[in-house]
């Protein structure tokens, strides 16, 4: 796993919820620099746990990946790309990757700690969200994705499992495993989660950053209804419904939200609601709490 990029020095300047990490900690890390706490989650290639820097007691999430499993799955390049992209992104609604270090058998990613956990788990516990919470998440994600797209980064896999919640409930884009830095913003790789795949990826066509707009529409529907709009008993039926943009809105879904989702779920990428207009959509403006985190920049 040699060749992982260095996090920029500025990565050390920002801390969780606006606190600052002590610059004296910007030295090569080892596991001995951390106090390991309770588990936060378990994945296919490793685990995530709560941790604290011994020097200044700064709380972080430590993602521990096993090199042998990464190499066996042939995901070395994907991991390098994930680290490179996330280390250079600094936005209040994107989970910070502070740094990483390695030992002979493991890769350790030092990440911002999001104390309220996955958005997916919130949905599982509490069911669909109300309009205010959903519209606020749409606003936060639109701002974060504008930032990403301005830096030529396409996320490609926005879904509840990849979104964490900060101390105040603010959303944090957390997983950049399927992200890509594409100077041309045009790709042709099949990736992502089936329920969230846009038609151009299902059909193997060239695509651009507008795939993230489709995902935003699918996410909004799922947050309000409790399931994704194209969910079907079989994969082939899900694909068929995606290609036909076969969306059925339940009577419980507010008309403003239906209008918002329908303007994002368009077969032609060029017809999808741009991120700047997501922020200005009447339903979002009427129901969002309207307070982007400090440092967020409005889409233009």
From TrEMBL:
GO biological process annotation, one example: cell division
Source taxon at top rank: Eukaryota
All residue ranges annotated as the Protein kinase domain in the record: 34-284
Active-site residues, Swiss-Prot/TrEMBL: 157 (proton acceptor)
Alphabetical keyword list: ATP-binding, Cell cycle, Cell division, Kinase, Mitosis, Nucleotide-binding, Serine/threonine-protein kinase, Transferase
Enzyme class name: transferase
Subcellular location(s) of the protein: Cytoplasm, Cytoskeleton, Spindle
SMART domains xrefs: S_TKc (SM00220)
A GO-annotated cellular component: spindle
Chain residue numbers at which the record places covalent cross-link Glycyl lysine isopeptide (Lys-Gly) (interchain with G-Cter in SUMO2): 159
GO molecular function, one term: protein serine/threonine kinase activity
PROSITE patterns the UniProt entry points to: PROTEIN_KINASE_ATP (PS00107), PROTEIN_KINASE_DOM (PS50011), PROTEIN_KINASE_ST (PS00108)
Keyword Nucleotide-binding: yes
Enzyme Commission no: 2.7.11.1
UniProt binding sites for ATP: 44, 63, 112-114, 161-162, 175
This protein's record includes keyword Cell cycle: yes
Family in the record: Belongs to the protein kinase superfamily.
Name the UniProt record assigns to this protein: non-specific serine/threonine protein kinase
Species per Swiss-Prot/TrEMBL record: Marmota monax
């Amino acid at each position: 796993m040699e060749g992982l990029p260095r996090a920029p020095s500025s990565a050390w300047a920002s801390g969780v919820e606006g606190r600052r990490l002590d610059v004296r900690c910007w030295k090569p890390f080892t596991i001995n620099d951390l106090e390991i706490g309770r588990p936060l989650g378990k994945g296919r290639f490793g685990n995530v746990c709560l941790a604290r820097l011994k020097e200044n007691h700064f709380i972080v999430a430590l993602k521990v990946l096993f090199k042998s499993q990464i190499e066996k799955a042939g995901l070395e390049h994907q991991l390098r790309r994930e680290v490179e992209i996330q280390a250079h992104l600094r936005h209040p609604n994107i989970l910070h990757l502070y740094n990483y270090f390695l030992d002979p058998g493991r890769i350790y990613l030092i990440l911002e700690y999001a104390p309220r956990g996955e958005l997916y788990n919130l949905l599982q516990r509490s069911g669909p969200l109300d309009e205010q919470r959903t519209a606020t998440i749409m606003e936060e994600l639109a701002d974060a994705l504008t930032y990403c797209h301005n830096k030529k980064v396409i996320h490609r896999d926005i879904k509840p499992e990849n979104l964490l919640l900060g101390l105040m409930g603010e959303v944090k884009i957390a997983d950049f495993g399927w992200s890509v830095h594409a100077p041309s913003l045009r790709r042709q790789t099949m990736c992502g989660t089936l329920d969230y795949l846009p038609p151009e990826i299902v059909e193997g066509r060239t695509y651009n950053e507008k795939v993230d707009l489709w995902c935003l529409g699918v996410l909004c529907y799922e947050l309000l209804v409790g399931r994704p709009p194209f969910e079907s008993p079989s994969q082939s039926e899900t694909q068929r419904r995606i290609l036909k943009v076969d969306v059925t809105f339940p009577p419980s879904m507010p008309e403003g939200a239906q209008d918002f989702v329908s303007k994002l779920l368009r077969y032609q990428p060029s017809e999808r609601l741009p991120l700047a207009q997501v922020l200005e959509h009447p339903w979002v403006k009427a129901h969002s709490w309207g307070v982007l985190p400090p440092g967020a920049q409005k889409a233009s």
